Amino acid sequence: MTRVLGWVCGGILALVVGFWFVTATGDLALSAGLYGTSGTYKVDSCVDTSNTRKDSDYDCYGAFTPDGGTVSNAVSVKLKDTGHDYPDGTEFDARQGINPETIQRVGFWGVVGELWQVALCMAVLAVLGYQAVKPRGQSQRREDHRREPSRRQKVADRMGYAVIVAISVGILSWIAMAAEPTS
Reading across the β-sheet that carries 58-66, which strands appear in turn? Predict the structure, then answer.
């Protein structure tokens, strides 16, 4: 019963994280400039939408102007959960996705801002893969060092390496975001 429950919970978690991975990868691709309309986003104002004093959740209101466009071509867009309280009038390079409401900051800081989500999803999916692939009962038995590890054990070990790399990339992304200049 416990094993079945573990597989069901793992499957549900894999679906949720897989969906988050797909959307985060799309946002990362937009920030990297792989698709979308390039332009400039100008912040009119940012509002802290958090009810707690400890955390801040900033939504920013502003306008996206496509490259080569004029102010009359600007599209009013609300950016949810920007992570920063941009000063009024701040402009940054951005890309507009297929949905006109989807705007992502481009360049180094845009990529760094999205990279942690992809790294976290990769780490969770790799842990789930490790749990699914590792040989059963490996922790209870003593390994015979004269035998070569099984194919499943080799794959499970590689999943463990993927977890370490993904966590490292995520931590470096958070450090870079903390060091980002706000103005």
Answer: 75-79, 58-66, 37-48, 91-96, 103-105
